[in-house]
């Protein structure tokens, strides 16, 4: 914890030094000196981001160490040993150890004991649990889904690779099947009640009727292609296999899910939040943004949406680098570093933001910034990631692949607005 505290304090120091450099730039500053100070500022903020990733790794390592401590008393199985050596007390075999024997020990599902097969089937989530293959004439060869631990690691890795798959940002609908879902939509922000006059009947001319719309959520399927790894790696990595495979598969699934939920065109793919958003502000420049334009973007969204707990900005890291240098009319920076020691995240003009690398950078006609209530963007997830393992095809090495089904749609187009470059 002391190391994490030191890293956070170093971040605060970097922010202070970076701002001091920008404060030295004025109308009278020599152009070369201004360029030098901006370069130093960018380097400092890159160091800030590097420390942020290091902090995330430290926190992840702490979680792994805690898990390893919990597993320390467990006996490591001997690969290929078909005897019940995983457990010595006669108890039901542990799911992770049975899965490890199947994965790295060379055992076909048909060669596992009835008790071990039952453990595999019981340990998976409520999704399709096997993928049949035709290998060697064996009718039992196939790939069981991975332990729930690995599924959780994959989902965490997906969130790390893009904000649009995160239920803390969007509204997530988890379903067990992929049947079409119709979502009713309504924008009633411009409608008010009327003053009533005593003794007069209520108006009933239909002028205040609620106008409903409808959006549809399907279930599109995406796969990782195969991730191949060596038999030796599988055998030697039992205590961190979930983290290893979770990172590999989660990165691939996370990239495609985040990209489609961000810029998907809605035709045979999810309707991405940028594509579905409406115009809030047109920038004057083709590759730059001003503080006033960001303020105008905020106020293009109705105050009813700006009070939502899920309201935020979204842009890529290149745009964030430019935004960090902006000041308002009184000379205050728009970007505030926050206070991580007290759980306060960085903000922009008082609002949180998410960095989304699937968004476009500032260039002619692009939409580099969106703002609004992301709770109005619906992400439909069908079950959990489905994982299959193949050994025969890549023998003696192994291959593992993942599938996910999802869709996305902006339920209320007035809730999220974009800034477009000139």
Task: Record the SSE blueprint.
Layout lengths: L1 H22 L7 H41 L23 H10 L9 H9 L7 E3 L9 E3 L3 H13 L10 E5 L5 E6 L25 E6 L2 E4 L3 E3 L1 H6 L4 H23 L9 H4 L1 E5 L8 H9 L3 H4 L4 E5 L1 H7 L11 E2 L10 E2 L4 E3 L13 E5 L3 E6 L3 E5 L7 E13 L5 E5 L2
Parallel strand pairs: 3-14, 8-17, 9-12
Antiparallel strand pairs: 1-2, 4-5, 6-16, 7-16, 9-13, 10-11, 13-17, 14-16, 15-16
Helix pairs in contact: 1-2, 5-7
Structure, briefly:
Helix content is 35%, strand content 19%. With 422 residues, the protein is an alpha+beta fold.
Q: Can you describe what's shown?
A:
The protein is built from eleven helices and 17 strands. The strands form five sheets. Strands 3, 6, 7, 14, 15 and 16 form a six-stranded mixed sheet that branches. Strands 8-17-13-9-12 form a five-stranded mixed sheet. Strands 1-2 form a two-stranded antiparallel sheet. The longest helix is centred in the first third of the chain and has 41 residues, at 31-71. It is an alpha+beta fold. Helix 1 packs antiparallel against helix 2 (31-71) and helix 5 crosses helix 7 (241-263). It starts with a helix and ends with a strand. The model is unreliable at 75-89 and 124-145 (pLDDT under 50). The relative contact order is 0.15.
Looking at this protein, list some descriptive labels.
Major capsid protein gp5 fold, 422 residues, 11 helices, globular, six-stranded mixed beta sheet, five-stranded mixed beta sheet, alpha+beta
**Cα-atom radius of gyration:** 26 Å
Which H/E pattern describes the elements? Answer: HHHHEEHEEEEEHHHEHHEHEEEEEEEE
- Structural class category: alpha+beta
> Going by CATH, what is the homologous superfamily of the domain at 143-187 and 211-422?
Major capsid protein gp5
Tell me what portion of residues adopts beta-strand conformation.
15-25%
> Could you estimate the helical fraction of the residues in percent?
25-40%
Mean pLDDT: 79
Distance between the termini: 47 Å
| CATH fold-level assignment of the domain at 143-187 and 211-422 | Major capsid protein gp5 fold
The total of helices stands at 11
Number of strands: 17
Largest sheet: 6 strands, mixed
Shape: globular
CATH architecture of the domain at 143-187 and 211-422: 2-Layer Sandwich
Low-confidence stretches: 75-89, 124-145
**Which CATH class of the domain at 143-187 and 211-422 is shown?**
Alpha Beta
